[in-house]
Design brief:
The chain is an alpha+beta fold. The chain is about 30% helix and about 20% strand. It folds into three domains: about 120 residues, Creatine Amidinohydrolase, Chain A, domain 1 (3-Layer(aba) Sandwich); about 140 residues, 3-Layer(aba) Sandwich (Creatine Amidinohydrolase, Chain A, domain 1), CATH 3.40.350.10; about 290 residues, Creatine Amidinohydrolase (Alpha-Beta Complex), CATH 3.90.230. The strands form eight sheets. The protein has a six-stranded mixed beta sheet, with helices on both faces. Strands 12-11-10-8-13-14 form a six-stranded mixed beta sheet. A hairpin with a 2-residue loop joins strand 27 and strand 28. Helix 12 crosses helix 13.
Length: about 575
């Protein structure tokens, strides 16, 4: 920093593809801070360093930073500025702030610049300073790429590229830069394993009138993959030659570039006389609206994933007291159950296997140091998911391992009421997730309770478990929920050092009805797994909520029963009994 005349340097969580979960090669923020959560930014000045992260990671970050000298800034807490405002107050007029232009999105750089410029602080795009210090840095991943079959995708890559170019034509664009890995994988019907849990491959794609140029190391493409891509008009060029392709785009051409999804470095490689059309990737919203084939496959996947979850819950409750069960061993056992399912590829994210107080750490990840044994007491939270060739899953269940306290039952039931309130909502076409977030929180707000994370995130189809552009959140969004979009519904409640409660299902947006007031949409619940009846306080459940629970459990029982061996099927029968009947539940 001193050699470059920098008063501060910003280290984001992202990579050159603006990935939420970067490959190990680009985990620069984790290397310098020791904090491994998916969201956070480190800022280093000449005499101070800070990490900014949100509610989900407060406890994890506090532990990771202990003794490091790096200060923790808890975003969302009163009087805690975000890092741009902190830099504007901390630095002197005329100071310079640096960052790696490859890993900083155009939008993020502009937002930072807007805060710093009034203070006459200069933002300096530059190179990767961390990489010059990281002596044992992992190599850039280069694993084989494979084809995603059309029978799963529901549309060929040729059809997708044709539709892509048609839309580009409507916008008057000649080229489209795509750097986000899940968009590239979706457009070209390819998958990889370069990022843990996300079946994507490192590449850049430039769509042009002839088809497109895929920048990827050629030795990663088997002959059948190359033949399929070239047949669709895709030319293969080395990953490191993306800059040359962008620089070769003729002056006067119109190029679509997404400020949120492309880096400062990529934008800078275009000639000054190229006209840039700034908008989100054309693929992002189309990808989010699953087609009929994808939804049919996803419904089938939910049966296989539900069978794995039920086998796991049955095993867990039977094993406690008979054999040692820890957070890590339970996590591994669930992985085994999922791997026995047809077309299973991997987990879709690192499982959150959290007992008692660990459940209050929203993105807790058990380790040999933190691992604890489960007992026949307290609450256990398991948040997990699977990647299958024909779909992606994400589910959270909270289970009572012993007789729950009245407080735990009330807390659990309030979270369940929040879930049902959103799962049963009808809403006008054009509604965004931001507009309905409060519907889910209402029951908790009435009791002066809340949770600090979003209510729902989009989910890909054998792609990233977190997928935009839609979400259900208190954060503003202008993306309406449309039929075919898949999103989680996951309200929660967390009591530090006691327990965490979260009930999460995936839903898809479907058409409801059209009347004189317009078109209405609703959610169809996709996830299939019992919800712990022993944690429900029936006294605060409305009649409609009880009916939803019974109907949901009837569907779970009908869809899963035939795929289970007899002892597990009998357990499922009991777990899905109607609330009116005197059963013990889970």
């Amino acid at each position: 920093m001193e050699a470059r005349g920098l008063a501060a340097y910003v280290v984001p969580s992202s990579d050159p593809h603006q990935s939420e979960y970067p490959p190990d090669h680009w985990k620069l923020r984790q290397w310098i801070s020791g904090f491994g959560g998916s969201a956070g930014t480190v800022v280093v000045t000449s005499d101070r360093a800070g990490l900014w992260t949100d509610f989900r990671y407060y406890l994890e970050a506090e532990s990771a930073l202990r003794g490091s000298g790096i200060e923790l800034f808890r975003l969302g807490s009163p009087d805690v500025p975000d890092y741009p405002a902190w830099l504007a107050a901390e630095l002197e007029r005329g100071d310079k702030v640096g960052f790696d232009a490859e890993c900083f999105s155009i939008a993020a750089a502009r937002s930072l610049e807007e805060t710093l410029t009034p203070r006459n602080i200069e933002l300096v795009p530059g190179d990767d300073l961390i990489g010059t210090l990281w002596s044992d840095r992992p190599a850039r991943p280069s694993r084989p790429v494979f084809l995603h079959e059309e029978r799963f995708a529901g549309q060929s890559r040729g059809e997708k590229l044709f539709a892509f170019r048609e839309k580009m034509g409507e916008l008057g664009a000649d080229y489209h830069l795509i750097s986000t890995l899940d968009d590239i994988a979706w457009v070209l019907n390819i998958r990889g394993s370069d990022v843990s849990y996300n079946p994507v491959a490192l590449a850049h794609l430039v769509v042009d009138p002839q088809g497109g140029v895929l920048h990827i190391d050629a030795d990663r493409l088997a002959s059948d993959v190359r033949v399929e891509l070239e047949a669709a008009g895709v030319r293969i060029r080395p990953y490191d030659e993306t800059a040359q392709t962008l620089a070769s785009i003729p002056g006067g051409s119109r190029v679509i570039v997404s400020p949120q999804q492309a880096s400062v470095a990529m934008r800078a490689r275009l000639r000054p006389d190229v006209r840039v059309v700034e908008r989100a990737n054309l693929s992002s919203e189309v990808k989010a609206q699953k087609n009929a084939t994808e939804l049919d496959h996803l419904r089938d996947v939910m049966v296989r994933d539900g069978v794995a979850m039920v086998r796991f819950l049955h095993w867990l409750l039977a094993a406690l007291g008979d054999e040692p069960v820890t957070e890590l061993s339970a996590e591994g056992r669930l992985r085994e159950f999922r791997s026995e399912g047809e077309r299973f590829v991997s987990e879709s994210f690192r499982t959150i296997s959290a007992y008692r107080g660990h459940g209050a750490i929203v993105h807790y990840a058990s380790s040999p140091e933190s691992d604890v044994e489960l007992e026949r007491a307290g609450l256990y939270l398991i948040d997990s998911g699977g990647q299958y060739y024909d779909g992606t899953t994400d589910i959270t269940r909270t289970v009572a391992l012993g007789a729950p306290s009245d407080q735990a039952r009330r807390d659990f039931t309030l979270v369940l009421k929040a879930h049902i309130g959103l799962a049963t909502l009808s809403f006008p076409a054009g509604t965004t997730g931001h507009m309905i977030d409060a519907v889910c929180r209402e029951h908790l707000w009435r009791e002066r309770m809340n949770y600090g994370h979003g209510t729902g995130h989009g989910v890909g189809f054998f792609l990233n478990v977190h997928e935009g552009p839609h979400r259900i959140s208190q954060q503003p969004s202008d993306v309406p929920l449309r039929p075919g979009m898949v999103v989680s519904v996951e309200p929660g409640l967390y009591r530090a050092d006691q327990y965490g409660i979260r009930t999460e299902n995936l839903v898809t947006v479907v058409e409801d009805e059209r009347n004189e007031f317009g078109s209405f949409l609703r959610f169809e619940t996709l996830t299939l797994c019992p919800i712990d009846r022993s944690l429900m306080d029936a006294s605060i459940l409305a009649a409609g909520e009880r009916s939803w629970i019974d109907e949901y459990h009837r569907s779970v029982r009908d869809r899963l029963y035939g795929g289970l061996e007899q002892p597990v099927a009998e357990w499922l029968d009991e777990a899905c009994a109607p609330l009116e009947e005197d059963h013990a539940g889970l």
